[in-house]
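Late entry, written up from scratch paper. The run itself happened at the end of the previous shift, but nothing got recorded in the book at the time, so transcribing now.
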Amino acid sequence: MKSKDIKFLEIRYLRGPNIWTYRPVIEALVDIGDLEDFPSNTIPGFTERLAAFLPSLAEHRCSYGEPGGFLRRLQEGTWPAHILEHVTLELQNLAGMPGGFGKARETSSRGVYKVVVRAWHEEVTRSCLYAGRDLLLAAIRDEAFDVAGTVERLADLAERRLLGPSTGCIVEAATAKDRRIPFIRLLPTGNLVQLGYGARSRRIWTAESDRTSAIAEGISRDKDLAKTLLASCGVPVPEGRLVEDAGDAWDAAEDIGLPVVVKPSDGNHARGVFTNLMTRAEVESAYAAAVEEGSGVIVERYVRGSEHRLLVIGGKLAAAARGETATVVGDGRSTIDQLIDLQINSDPRRGAAEEFPLDVILLAENPVARLEVARQGFAPDSVPEAGREVLIVRSGNHTDDVTDLVHPETAATVALAAGIVGLDICGVDLVCEDISRPLDEQRGAIVEVNAGPGLLMHLKPANGQPRPVGRAIVDELFPDGDDGRIPVVGISGSRGKTTVARLLASIVGLSGRNTGLACSSGLFVGRRRIDAGDSANWGSANRILMNRTVETAIVENGCDSILTEGLAYDRCQIGILTNVEAERHFGLHDLSTAEQLFTVFRTQVDVVLPGGAAVLNASQPMLVDMAPLCDGEVIFFAADGELPAVVDHRGRGGRAVFVRDGEVVFGSRERDTVITSLRAIPFTDGGRIAAQVDNALAAAAAAWALGIGPEIVRTALETAAND
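Output as recorded:
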């Protein structure tokens, strides 16, 4: 079988809704060559080898709808393209991207298939696709394959390319079925994300939002300033001050009273924070380490108890977690370093990446832990006697959810602290012995207020209930059911798209809305042309949707763009189909039948929102047949208002735009409204240019669907240039 091969002829990244699904996918044109004559059941030992490589394929249901269905298909006989689909999806699953859509379909060329898989990230999915091909060929050829190494490489790539867990949980909450807020990733590998479109969008960067004030963030970083502001408003904070050198640090410690805490004045993530210091040597040693972590050092009263992280969102407590202490127990043989690796770092919850809720502890890189160990009389290479407990970290990761235990007065205090600093989303660190009691009763205190807090501790606590903190942030950014959407109009068809797009942009502009337009004539915002080139593509439309001055977006989508890029928006308010002429498209990307063409253009109808409308040409039976596919309203347009489709539609309460006695009419079951005469619309040449009449009707119908009044539509039609 070594002569058999699988080749990728073309790989397309469909970034938005497409002919396959609403989600981004990779569509690969795959040539299996001579393997077309070798379905899986004809290759000795193939199914067993593949199942040994990927045992989790046993969970794939395939066409039988039950676990094991795919393996059954392998035994009965299926082709490499179909197998590649499943292998690629499973590699994605093992790399941390579970689930997903997949299809494998024959083309008109023998042995050539389209393999389609859900793309969580273009680079990651491409890598999974190539790795899947190599694994599949190894199983076919009875060769070795390093599955573990491949999965590790793909998982590492996914970790570096996908959204981090904090940002990911916010996006997941925003795009949930009950919110359906669209999102745009603004950096290819970072966590800067836009939720919503245009003028109604919001932006987040991890757990910071576009409402996070730079001044407030600056205050939170200056620990001494933050403490001063909090104390002036009656918030309990530990007594302390900035110090100038190691000697001054000891003077401050004596003034405050031992034990004390030494920490950087502008550090974060608890780096360089030394607690419960009792001697001059400890204070001066801690000063030397803390000064390396920031621009200054603070000495303050040591507050007894556990450290807690309380998450405040929009002035309300959203979640609370309690910090852990980390200890090891001697066995009489192992060093402190070895015990840390065996008893602490072996915990699968620990890791260096953001997705791990607990940090790895390395004494060589953690001066706070080294000091804690030294205070107990040990060094990293010391061997404690069997049964001796050694404290490694006094206040480490926050692992236990305690949200339901927080005393109401404490919840109010941390909300006040967030408001004083000025943060919309923040993590408040406080220390107390019992979070269920008021702070004043136990001399508890707030020690820090942090901008951009991590959310993972609340999403995956070691103990207790996970908290929907992503949803809380989304509800704060988009209150009262706001979906962050501006009206988006998508226009597709064979002819007239650009004319309809420009005409509609003129109408919307006259209504007073700042309009973004991406069409074959260029990229426009308002009256300004940003790009003179052909902009009827995904990239240009995406630029419109990212522009926070745009109040209405109008996007032209050609057949080729739908097939090779997908739509730039997830859903739209208005979807327009001007017409379909099969001969203009047959031969393009293997299109050869009316059914295939129907599948392409229905994409524009499929994405219309329930509160939106599809504007369809009633003179074309194919487009009339698409009307039931629309989740929203349907508005027909036609030069002949007596077409059966129009008459029937109006009879059932639908709206239509048509021509009667040379006049453009907005018609419904209740009433007809004359908009203007064709003689008054210059670019139709008095109604003699039939294609331009259709374009005028389509644009007018879309304007009506957008709630624009007849007077504005009339003015725009009568003053449109005949270019």
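Residues 665 and 674 are 4 Å apart (CA to CA).
(Scratch paper discarded after transcription.)
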